[in-house]
Amino acid sequence: xxxxxxxxxxxxxxxxxxxxxxxxxxxxxxxxxxxxxxxxxxxxxxxxxxxxxxxxxxxxxxxxxxxxxxxxxxxxxxxxxxxxxxxxxxxxxxxxxxxxxxxxxxxxx
Amino acid sequence: xxxxxxxxxxxxxxxxxxxxxxxxxxxxxxxxxxxxxxxxxxxxxxxxxxxxxxxxxxxxxxxxxxxxxxxxxxxxxxxxxxxxxxxxxxxxxxxxxxxxxxxxxxxxx
DNA sequence: CTTGTATAATGCAATATTACGATTAATAAT
DNA sequence: ATTATTAATCGTAATATTGCATTATACAAG
Lengths: 109, 109
Description:
homodimer, Arc Repressor Mutant, subunit A, 3-stranded antiparallel beta sheet, DNA-binding
């Protein structure tokens, strides 16, 4: 099997899971960390940041882009990546509701 | 080869990735959603919440517990789960720094 | 035209994840 | 004692992920 039963869950739950999954890898967090500091960066330098091969780094970038977290624009012969600020803020708002704006009014087990 | 190179990354990056990975599944989000509403819940009912088998649900609960997100206490013949409020708030603080307290001072690509 | 650089695409091997049925272990009820 | 209930674990199968080598493509610069 190994096949997540998305039909059992709400669209919100499935989408949130996909977004979190895209972030949930140390190499991809390292890429995001760097882009948050540097604002933008080309693939070649991000290969150095991850310490992984060009091919592997490229795949991580693709995953982040597919999840809508990054944008990339062609710059001469290079690809220039940066955070997609609009989508980032949308995701931040969702995470804020889910994770931070929680008040526990009872103690428990 | 299917083996994440944790040595390439900081402890913070690795830990954050592990925590996010634990949350990044719709069944586990559904479990957390329910526990945030209901405060506490036994395994049997969480099986209904996920719509998955008892065995699969039990594994998801174990993963959340190992990641420190849930606590479980034996209650008669049942297992009573709830959010680990202390760890939850720690994680929320980390996520707040990473995701929400970000200000983009420049536009980009 | 050739060489070097950057990215993309494909294929492979190792490992991880998802899910289930069957089993086990422990307690509760008859 | 036996049976039912509850939850965890084991074994298995299907699928996904991670990472690299290799190849392909495009565009500089020399």
